[in-house]
Write a structure and sequence with these properties.
Radius of gyration: 33 Å
Number of domains: 2
Shape: flat
Helix content: 40-55%
Strand content: 5-15%
Largest sheet: 6 strands, mixed
Number of helices: 14
Length: 491
């Protein structure tokens, strides 16, 4: 099985309706099943169920070690922790106070929905199989206190059981989101969400349809809107399933280095075999005759042999052994592992030398942290592309229910990774830029690279400087007033 990323599913239909939904799903199913099989394999690799466990040894099969060095888990864990170790925040795209308050409320809604944890699930699936899916639905109405809940629900879907169908046009717009499910009898069926309809397809037939599909009924059921507002939201439809691809090819983080990971497992297993075979070396008998009825099993059990020479030839026993060169083997393994780190863009814990450096910037550049940061920024760009569509859908819910009046143009995204490399250099750059009257302070905050959200940092710093100036002015005024009172002449 070759692994070159997941297939993107397209349709040439201009619209998916009851008349053609069965045919569209039928054509998409083959690509979905291929993706499903590959995702399952990659998920097994991530969990440690790797090819080495199926190893068969032809010579001396009784010594057959199967060592899994789960570097796939290491790669996924590092990638996910590095890019979203801190929650992804929404920030205001302008300085308007009302917008800032609305964005803060949006962040509160996301916190209620545990979005940080669900983002981690998304990135885990991205790095395992190259893609992930999120679903946005209205509240289910089972909450005891709806006022303290967000007006939407976020769900992270299993990519083995869902897919998105795109239009085979230049814009590649989403045509349908599909869930593969099973009913109470264990029979599989597809739940198909289109722009304005919902279908359930089982055994090549549409067994259920809701058209036009809107969130009006759900929102009204949980008493989020008034009856007078029903007409206003009838046109608020949309596909609630969003795909978050890791890259254009939809390749997982460790997928390009699967052969290298298998080679490392083979090498480790063979090394342990070499140790076992050295300890359990074969015995070779020269010019000797075993006592009648003696078997090799008895020789191994007793550990001693009585021999008699054959004719004039001297009887001799030798142990056939050749120890594996562990130094050369370790050199090969280190080379394989360095290749893995280079390809996936991970930093190494050591550069292979015994020298040390007190220059933090040199260590960062030498050990590959710069490449890790570059890969993280690449992942951010792909994430924002999908998050843009999802957030547009979320803001529709918020405007419908009246919980939040916020437009997509007012919101930006911030990945709150902490950048401590070359810290002294960045501080010096910021100080130098702020010390000149030819560069605006906001530009200095953006250029230095110290802050995750330079706009917010510049705003808070400006308020802090203004507060200090007001305090200094007030203190100076107090001193002046006290001096005036001392100089007054009492008559």
């Amino acid at each position: 099985m070759g692994f070159y990323g997941r297939k993107t599913i397209y349709t040439r239909e201009r619209e998916i309706t009851r008349d053609n939904v069965v045919a569209v799903i039928g054509k998409a199913n083959s690509a979905f099943l291929q993706n499903q099989a590959q995702i399952q394999y990659l998920y097994n690799v991530y969990k440690g169920k790797q090819d080495i466990l199926n190893r068969v040894k032809q010579i001396r099969p009784e010594i057959c070690n199967k060592i899994v060095e789960n570097r796939a888990l290491e790669i996924v864990s590092f990638k996910t922790a590095y890019i979203c170790g801190e929650p992804i925040q929404y920030v205001s795209a302008n300085d308007d106070e009302t917008t800032c308050e609305a964005v803060s409320k949006l962040n509160s809604f996301m916190r209620m929905e545990c979005k940080a944890s669900k983002d981690k699930e998304l990135f885990d699936w991205q790095h395992i199989c190259g893609t992930s899916y999120r679903m946005v639905l209205p509240p289910d109405g089972d909450e005891e206190d709806g006022e303290d809940e967000a007006p939407f629900r976020l769900y992270t879907l299993d990519p083995r059981f869902c897919f998105v169908i795109y239009a085979a046009t230049v814009d590649h717009r989403r045509m349908a989101g599909v869930l593969w499910q099973k009913d109470a009898d264990g029979q599989p069926y597809f739940s198909v969400y289109t722009k304005d309809s919902y279908f359930e397809v089982k055994a090549g037939e549409v067994v259920f349809e809701r058209s036009p599909f809107t969130q009006a009924e759900e929102l009204a059921r949980v008493e989020r809107i008034e009856d007078a507002d029903m007409n206003r939201i009838q046109n608020v439809n949309g596909i609630p399933i969003f795909e978050y691809p890791a890259n254009q090819a939809r390749m997982g983080a460790f997928e390009p280095v699967l052969s290298l990971l298998n080679a490392i497992n083979d090498l480790d297993s063979n090394r342990l075999d070499g140790v076992a075979q050295f300890i359990q070396s074969l015995i070779v008998l020269y010019n000797c005759q075993l006592p009648e009825g003696t078997t090799s099993s008895e020789i191994q059990a007793k550990g001693i042999i009585e021999l008699s020479s054959v004719n004039d030839n001297k009887a001799e026993i030798k142990i056939l052994s050749e120890q594996l060169n562990q130094t050369e083997t370790q050199t090969l393994k280190d080379d394989l592992y360095r290749s893995v780190l280079t390809i996936v863009g991970m930093p190494s814990q050591s550069d292979g030398s015994t020298s040390d450096s007190s220059n933090n910037g040199a260590v960062i550049m030498r050990n590959g942290w710069t490449q890790a940061e570059s890969r993280a920024k690449d992942s951010e760009a792909m994430f924002k592309l999908a998050e843009h569509d999802m957030l547009r859908h979320v803001l529709r819910f918020c405007r419908m229910t009246g919980d939040l009046d916020l437009k997509l143009i007012d919101v930006d995204y911030r990945f709150t990774r902490r950048q401590y490399d070359a810290l002294l250099t960045k501080v010096q750059a910021l100080t130098s830029l702020l010390g000149t009257d030819k560069v605006a302070p906001r530009l200095a905050f953006n250029v230095c690279g110290l802050f995750v959200d330079p706009e917010e940092a510049a705003r808070e710093s400006g308020e802090y400087v203004k507060t200090l100036a007001d305090m200094a002015k007030e203190a100076a005024q107090n001193v002046e007033d006290m001096s005036g009172e001392e100089n007054e002449t009492v008559i």
